[in-house]
Write a structure and sequence with these properties.
2 strands; mainly alpha; about 90 residues; two-stranded antiparallel sheet; single chain
């Protein structure tokens, strides 16, 4: 909720951050060239872009973890095979 009504040409506005336990007042920097509505739309677009990026990063991290697990299994299989070949020379034929 705005503590005062912003207008075009303002460099910042103050709002209450209800998501924090003590609900502190924070300053939001505004683009002087934009109306309050346009500034709000700009921040909303930026928020949505970051939210999508976070979702994509989480997906990529899960994918990378699966790939790491797979490669660790491949390394274990290679190590096991190499140890077996060292211990049993006739297996190299």
């Amino acid at each position: 909720m705005l503590t005062y009504t912003p207008f075009k040409g303002m460099s910042e506005t103050k709002v209450i951050n209800y998501y924090e336990p003590d609900a502190p007042e924070i300053s939001i920097h505004l683009d002087l060239r934009l109306s309050p509505s346009e500034n709000a739309q700009r921040y909303f677009k930026k928020y949505n872009k970051l939210k999508k990026a976070l979702s994509e990063v989480k997906r990529q991290m899960i994918e990378a973890k699966h790939e790491i697990d797979y490669l660790e299994n491949v390394m274990t299989a290679i190590d096991t095979t190499m140890k077996h070949r060292i211990l049993t020379p006739y297996a190299m034929n």
